[in-house]
Amino acid sequence: MFIELVDALRCPVPHEESWLVAATTRMEHRHIVEGTLGCPVCRAEYPVVRGVVDFRRAPQGPLPREAPPSETEAMRLAAFLALTDRTGFAVLLGGWSVHAPLLRALVETPLVVIDPPEGTEGEPGISVIRCDGPLPLADGAARGVAVDVASPLRVESAVGATRASGRLVLPAAAPVPAGVRELARDAAVIVAEREAAASPPITLHVRRRG
Fold first, then answer.
1. DSSP state of 187
2. 0.85 exceeded by the pTM?
3. Could you give the angle at the alpha carbon of 54 between the alpha carbons of 58 and 33, nearest 5°?
């Protein structure tokens, strides 16, 4: 897990938002290979093992097998998420994560994969997270998020984690959430954009000259 990603992570336990604190036992090229992330609010600790940070609160069975990686899908993702430079990071959930190595070969944007296939380990440019609740990311932290299933919890937290004007790739079966503008769709996916929050009204005061 890339050390700079720690600033964008949040504890998934419901409480006031707080930064996480990293304690590392092994690092390579600014990537945490072994260590722990701790929450200063609830004192929860999340292990980092072989570059993978695990936010799951309950034991999990093996993940289902995913489709093999595809260069065509990787190119589609690069276009859908508008990954034209190295600023920020993009998030790939579940089934989308299998294309991360091919996508990383096409773009300079750092990638975060969440709940990838069993055995996936972190590597330079690709950070790995496992979680069983909302995405453990700060509001507006990601430049774009690709969601693989129409789970209301995952879609809602993906929207929250996407910055204003950032791209979202959602399953075609998912309703378009409030605050999201649809850009295009086909039989499989919706490509959308998170709208900027409306600014509060500004009161104008007219100064009258005597």
1. S
2. yes
3. 155
Output the six-digit token pair for 202: 């500004």
* Topology, domain 71-194: Rossmann fold (3.40.50)
Query: CA-CA distances (angstroms) from residue 26 to 9, 23, 52?
Result: 19, 9, 13
- The pLDDT of residue 137: 96
Spatial distance between the Cα atoms of 144 and 124, rounded to a whole number of angstroms = 19
Cα(70)–Cα(130) distance, integer angstroms: 22
User: Closest by alpha carbon to 35, among 19, 52, 18?
Assistant: 52
The percentage of the chain sitting over the pLDDT mark of 90, rounded to a whole number, equals 72
Q: Dihedral sign, CA of 50, 52, 56, 60?
A: negative
∠ Cα 88 92 93 (to 5°): 140
Residue-range domain boundaries for the chain: 3-54, 71-194
- pLDDT category at 1 given cuts 50, 70, 90 is confident
- N-to-C CA span, the chain: 65
Reported as type and span, the H/E element at residue 111 is: strand 111-114
pLDDT class for 200, splitting at 50, 70, 90? low
DSSP annotation of 25: E
